[in-house]
Amino acid sequence: MTESPKPRRGRPPLSNKTETRDRILDAALEVFSERGFDGATVRQIAAKVGVSDPALYAHFKGKKEIFEALLKLAGPDLLASAGPSLESEKTPMQLAIPETFGNIVATWSTPRARAFASLVLRMGPDGLSNMLQDVSLRLRPHFTAWQERGELCKDIPVDVAIWQVIGPLAALRITYLHGNASKADVARAKLLAKTHLKIVAQTLTQSRRQEE
User: Fold this and answer.
1) How far apart are CA 110 and CA 29, in angstroms?
2) What is the pTM of this model?
């Protein structure tokens, strides 16, 4: 009679690591929302997940790193993974704006991103203001390049052009893409964002054409 092979010891499968990391992020959102960032502790987050403190530290160094991970998934760092259009110098502004920000709105529509939006709102107006300023700074080089290439009207200040794009999107996120948003709210936000991005891209391009 052959013996059954003994289970091999070693590192847990990558899928398990990813699942635990996702559970930590979702639990952290709840704890941050309930207690605020300053009031939340790693122990509280670990208890919400159902793991020990050392197990949580195997994924994150602390609550600051957890919050930074949430920022990458749902905050200003989304610009880095919103698609190639924003980074490619060959993509015209009229195409880059709808594609890039359309991808961002799609990510904003996910449950975790919507929960993060509610968390930012609970942090007060400074939290939202800081995020918008961060996004504006990250976008400035791209809009400046479009203006230098003649795609953006030179009479429109770069900061104004950026706000024309992101201002209404920020309002949509607050109004329709929060943690308690319904399916109808999310669908309406996507439709409004798509229409807005198409119009604003055409408007900024038409302003340039009127000069010619």
Assistant:
1) 14
2) 0.75
